[in-house]
Amino acid sequence: MKRISAPAAVCAAVLVASGCGGASPAAEDQALVDGATFTFNIDSDPGNLDPQAGASSWVQQLGRFGYDPLIHIDANGKLLPGLAIAWTVEGNQVELTVKKGVTCSDSAPFTAADVATNIAWVADPKNKSPLLGVYLPAGTKAMADDTAGTVTLTAPRVGSFVLNGLAKLPMVCGKGLQDRKVLAQGMSGTGPYTLTSVAANDQYTLTKRDGYIWGPDGFGTATSGLPQKVVAKVVPSATTAANLLLSGGLNAATVLGPDVKRLQGANLYTAKMPLLVGEMWFNQAADRPAASQEVREALTRALDLPQLAKVLTSGSGTAPTTLSSVVPLACPGDSVSAVLPTHDLEKAKQLLDQAGWVAGAGGVRAKAGKPLALTFSFNTAFGTGISAAGELATKAWTELGVKITSKPKDTTAINGSLFGTGDWDIAWVGVGSSSPDQLVPFVSGPVPPSGTNFAHIDNAAYGAVIAAAAKLQGADSCAAWLKAESELVADVDVVPFANDVIQTFGKGARFENIGGLVPSSIRMLAG
Known about the structure:
The protein is α+β, with helices and mostly antiparallel strands. The chain has 15 helices and 20 strands. It has helices at 25-29, 57-66, 112-123, 162-166, 175-178, 238-247, 259-264, 293-301, 305-312, 345-354, 383-400, 411-421, 440-443, 460-469, 478-490, and strands at 37-42, 71-73, 79-81, 84-90, 93-98, 141-145, 150-154, 193-199, 203-208, 229-234, 252-255, 269-282, 366-367, 370-371, 373-379, 403-409, 426-428, 494-506, 509-510, 523-524. The chain is globular.
């Protein structure tokens, strides 16, 4: 299933999701190696690399090597200094103090004015940044004082977890601020690596910067064992990625499906990442059958969701309890169990009858002479598990009287359908987030191309609850946010059905996975 990073925008494909990598004793005890190359897999070409314009999780992952955020978050949810060394939130304002001595990859100094320019670009609706409303509150204005080294952000409503959002917002600098076109196939940031080679649909090569000393907890590029180069290799097949890892062609591979078991038996280093891998969405555009709540509920009740989860995750999955899955979670709890429709084929048939979709010739339901024909998309990167689960779902919907056209797609193609052509009816796409407010622009507000509400959701009850939730800060807001999520599930706007622990296996390297590979954690190993 495609992961949309709610930036991890779009678990949209949001790749945008994650956990903390654990280190095996063997990996911890191995000697470190300097000057080596670290190679990892990505399942599709990321396309436009602008970190503030791309929704793909792979854009965000590559961006972590070349760009820094204003604030870092560790595996326990603690906020750490990034490009900002101090911050305060009061009312509708956030004040940040910018770290001195930071330079861009082109040697230009990074200033408070640069922060304000970044904020202004993302906040401008005409730029259509998928990060607006996810990591930056809509309507945010920024005022910089370069002499004092401070930036003041003012928003109509800063929201409940504004600092968590800023921790996911990459800062562009130097030439990239002057000409955004250079960011499409290049990088212009303050991060520990620079992009030195691009071979589209093949691999992306980054090279370590000298003199980088402003990373989290004092991290710098002089750290022993840090790779000299990082290569992101496009490997669409999980089986191929597993083979490359075992043969030494990769140092890290995120693999799903049946190949996981053979990698588990190979005594490899493993970093684990909790993720919402089973999440069903419906195209609710006015001309689509799923605009009807009865149709959405019928399509959901026709499915045995626990069975689908078992097949999708090879038996390792668990039932989701919130719409957020990227740890550390801002609001743990259960917004799903009490309102998720359960399997009931007869009830599903009744719902379609009530909606006017009656059984017709050949077993396909029709309404006003139009057959109930739906397009179903899912991400091929999730391997044979998602294909098998998709076959079960197609069989169930066919029995319900729906003509299903299945369109498996890679991450880039499914992003194009959701945010571009709109040619889909049912999609299995995980939207990853760590706090519930990051989901808001994906489930409300403007639709593509003006916004990221790709499913055309218009849930008045959800809107009313989030308006109240956004006035509260931090943990005090969680009860309201969880209630808002329940409104989405109850209306069958979003159907979460499978959580899993995604494993990134390592050979010749160790690393952490917190919403993706953490560049500062990578260490190359001898032997």
